[in-house]
């Protein structure tokens, strides 16, 4: 049984990771097509994408949108979780359900709804519109992580601080936020990861200033190239690096 379990585990990881491995390997292909036989290795495609001004601008746009939208989603999620944990309102369960509901909705539906709403209010497709869209999809994630981390000891500490005369902002800043720091960091970095490589909302809500996934899609329209493999490898490695940092620092420290 143990042999079968290990075989299943290896097959599962192989099924998941084999396409990524192929992507990374052929990003070092020396010929112009990322297909066998492998001809390399070379770093020419990485040098080419670094020298590509449009690609670097898209990279900076993705970083900017991911940082700002994740920070906004984190603050809003933290405030919503703190409020619902402090006061038991009529229909609190319904409110929590509404806050988490966007997690169950297709990004395409959210993007189309936002596009129509922005057209109605006069907001043209832009990085600002994309950032708002990413707040919409990341706010439920941040709220769910933070609210689930609020145990009775956090709530009791917040009540004690209020009883001792602390203002609400002091309770949130000096008591609640430090106690929930691992959860806040986890929520922020996960939101950043989702925003960093999100395509559908960015595709529909941008026009001239695009994010990196949209720029990669534009590159793919002209056919496969080791350059697209190199960009995809960078996107994948950044996402993996964020998850590894979380696992080796915050999650391990929390478990200890």
TrEMBL record:
Keywords for the protein's UniProt record, in alphabetical order: Cell membrane, Membrane, Transmembrane, Transmembrane helix, Transport
Domain ABC transmembrane type-1 stretches: 59-246
Domain of life of the source: Bacteria
Intracellular or extracellular location(s): Cell membrane
Positions of transmembrane segments: 6-28, 63-81, 93-115, 127-151, 171-192, 230-251
Gene Ontology cellular component list: plasma membrane
Membrane topology: Multi-pass membrane protein
Alphabetical GO biological process terms: transmembrane transport
Pfam family, any one: BPD_transp_1
Family: Belongs to the binding-protein-dependent transport system permease family. CysTW subfamily.
Name of this chain's protein: ABC transporter permease
């Amino acid at each position: 049984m143990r042999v079968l379990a290990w075989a299943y585990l290896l097959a599962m990881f192989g099924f998941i990771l084999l396409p990524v491995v192929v992507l990374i390997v052929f990003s070092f292909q020396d010929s112009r097509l990322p297909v066998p036989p492998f001809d390399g290795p070379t770093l020419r495609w990485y040098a080419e994408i670094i020298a590509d001004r449009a690609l670097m601008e898209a990279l900076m746009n993705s970083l900017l949108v991911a940082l700002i939208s994740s920070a906004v989603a984190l603050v809003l999620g933290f405030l919503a979780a703190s409020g619902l944990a402090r006061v038991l309102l009529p229909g609190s369960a319904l409110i929590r359900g509404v806050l988490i509901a966007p997690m169950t909705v297709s990004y395409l539906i959210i993007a189309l709804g936002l596009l129509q709403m922005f057209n109605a209010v006069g907001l043209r497709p832009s990085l600002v519109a994309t950032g708002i869209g990413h707040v919409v999809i990341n706010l439920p994630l941040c709220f769910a992580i933070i609210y689930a981390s609020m145990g009775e000891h956090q709530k009791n500490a917040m009540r004690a601080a209020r009883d001792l005369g602390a203002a609400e902002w002091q309770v949130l800043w000096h008591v609640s936020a430090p106690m929930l720091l691992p959860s806040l960091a986890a929520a922020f970095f996960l939101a950043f990861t989702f925003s960093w490589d999100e395509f559908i909302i960015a595709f529909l809500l941008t026009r001239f200033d695009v994010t990196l996934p949209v720029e990669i899609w534009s590159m793919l329209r002209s056919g496969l190239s080791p350059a697209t493999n190199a960009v995809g490898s960078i996107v994948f490695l950044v996402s993996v690096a964020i998850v590894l940092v979380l696992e080796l620092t915050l999650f391990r420290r929390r478990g200890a």
